[in-house]
Amino acid sequence: MLDLMSGFVAELRNAGLPVSLTENLDAMEAIKQIPLEDREAFKWALGATLVKNAAHWRAFETVFEVYFSLRGPEYALKDDEDAGDFWREMQEQMRQGEGKGGAGGMDSLTQEELMNLLMRALMDGDQAMMRALAKQAVQRFAGMEPGRPVGGTYYLYRTLRNLDLDNMMSKIEQAKSNDGQEPLEDLERRLENDEMQHRIEKFKQEIEAEIRRRLVADRGAEAMAKTLRKPLPEDVEFMHASRDEMQSLKKALYPLTRKLAARLARKRRHGRKGPLDFRNTVRHSLNYGGVPAEPKFKYPRPAKPELMVVADISGSVAAFARFTLMLVYAIQGQFSKVRSFVFIDGLDEVTEYFKATEDITEAIHRVNTEADVVWVDGHSDYGHAFEVFWERYGKDVGPKTTVLLLGDARNNYHAAQSWVVREMRHRARHVYWLNPEPRSYWNTGDSIVGEYGSHTDGVHECRNLRQLEAFVEKLA
Amino acid sequence: MGNRFDSVQAVRDGLKRVNYLADDGIASVAFLADRLGKPVLVEGPAGTGKTQLAKSIADITGARLIRLQCYEGLDESKALYEWNYKKQLLRIQVDKNNDTWSEVHDDIFSEEFLLTRPLLEAIRADQPVVLLIDEVDRVEVETEALLLEILSEYQVSIPELGTITATQIPLVFLTSNNTRELSEALKRRCLYLHVDYPDMDREKEIVLAKVEGITDHLADQIARIVRSIRQLDLKKAPSVSETIDWARTLMLLGIEHIDAEQAKETLHILLKYQTDIAKAAKELSSDK
Lengths: 476, 288
Hints:
The complex is a heterodimer.
Chain A: H1 2-14, H2 21-33, H3 39-50, H4 57-67, H5 80-98, H6 111-124, H7 127-141, H8 152-163, H9 168-178, H10 186-219, H11 221-228, H12 243-269, H13 278-285, E1 306-312, H14 318-330, E2 337-343, E3 347-349, H15 351-356, H16 360-370, H17 382-393, E4 401-406, H18 419-427, E5 430-435, H19 449-453, E6 458-461, H20 465-475
Parallel strand pairs in A: 1-2, 1-4, 4-5, 5-6
Antiparallel strand pairs in A: 2-3
Helix pairs in contact in A: 1-4, 2-3, 4-11, 6-7, 7-8, 7-10, 8-10, 10-11, 12-14
Chain B: H1 8-17, H2 24-36, E1 40-43, H3 50-61, E2 64-69, H4 76-79, E3 81-83, H5 85-94, H6 101-108, E4 114-116, H7 118-124, E5 129-134, H8 141-153, E6 155-158, E7 162-165, E8 171-176, H9 184-189, E9 191-194, H10 200-210, H11 216-231, H12 240-252, H13 260-265, H14 267-270, H15 274-285
Parallel strand pairs in B: 1-8, 1-9, 2-5, 5-8
Antiparallel strand pairs in B: 3-4, 6-7
Helix pairs in contact in B: 1-2, 10-11, 10-12
């Protein structure tokens, strides 16, 4: 157990969770108090002592599953014969749990029958049946072979393609009307749909878990944990985020902006003490019979900066621009004024989109669809975009303005026009460049971030939320 | 010191008796907090029953609930203890001539002149106590340090008196709305519990337990609608307490079965932003 635990904690640390020595000891203490048979309680005991951040919970769950949930004897499938036993056993269990007997001999079902079974299970919300079907589906469709060096996603894809879950919804609806149920009113139907979607989602997770289970049995926990390791939301790189990761990024963004805004507001209020406030001191001295016993000070009120965001939204860096805009607008109360511009090879102001609606996501959507950013061919041209910016809006750049330039500075070998940035810096309070590329890629190929960067107050690497947050905090 | 709970299940049943429906996580962590004698840091969105958890635990263990509401500018004279200097002044003035200086000095720094504040009170109490430190994320990072001694050692050091150690180990709950990252030092000393919105079945049970006379059908419908709404991309998703408010409203209106029109008219109880309401109304009425 001790070995297992130390391996587990090491893997958590590898996944990026900060687990301290005392927390490790606490976890040991905690699991002594919990009966080992109670998996749920065991998991929560470890979670409560080792994971101190809700965003890390998913990473923890994955590691936990690999290390503990899959270790039971029932998962030890070494060869096909074993697997056969395992199936029979499972079906036995299922039949007992079910009491229906209709699901027996699943191996011999045709695909058609299997699909029908699945549909019924989804419609009735039958958990046990869904789990059994997930196992069956993986066994049948994934085509898993021991020692085959492919990732879990490949198997998942194969299984899902065969199951054709996307069409399941409409099939279910059809089946319902065939059953002679009266058509539902709108609201009911919508709720019903949500319910089904939820169940299908659950079924997918069931399949995923099943695939992981088998992979762990095949390759061992340590190797598996390594391949399953996913970056924490704040470490996901903007430029290479998958769709799922984008979702989790979006979720992480909102609490982050709230924290950031609270922190900035606090910072502004609790500046260092300023010079004596004579008026206020005299006013308070009246409480003490005219003795200025309680000196009052003027608190410095640092002016809120004015912000101009100029963002490249061409394909490669679009995600980064989107997140930065979202972040900036979510905390726009911390700035006296925010204006935003987007460009590819042409440039357009998009401030209005954000003013028109409270909903940032919708504004971003409008930026992506409506902004007029293509001038010639729709390939990034920083030089031209900057020129246009300077010509149209240069006069608005003043000594209170902070300009943020967002992009990878991959200029497709167009003219750099870096004089614009130099002029900007003369006139503005600060000019910063944020680059979503890793530092080692800068100035390779057509990247000319160095040329622009020499005229700014600093070029910052912003590959993930963590770096972006750190920069924005410094800015306001 | 005896254990308050026998098993995780016992916690769960106990909480259920006082109408608090705990899931596995909540029950397990509460159980561990008792066994390990460690404070629990409860984090999660507003209105998911974090404060209620502490109250309910106090309820089932028959303990007194001592609550410290945190806010910006909280300091030790409001959280820990304070010397009652007015009383001290009186004491000095009453018999100016009789006592020697050292006697007076010893006298005015005795427990008689100590005003206990929630934290000190919690560890000095003879009866069992549940200490609730509410919205701990509102105090400044520096003030957090005040809590550290009491959370790990259950003692308070007063320079003039020495160290006061706990007569019994209180159950401590800290709640946080996560408006800022709490310090590592604080987190390390606590068990961590993240309370999220309940899943549909649990929410339905909560509605059934909290709203008297509600029908199973209506509760089911409410839980399902709320889940659908939470899936939308909203500024502020409806909390459990808002769900309950909504259920009560529907009961008062005498509605047995919600249709789209009624749902739209009462949405403002669930959602507090105009844009959110508009969005949800649109979603509920469209049939896709």
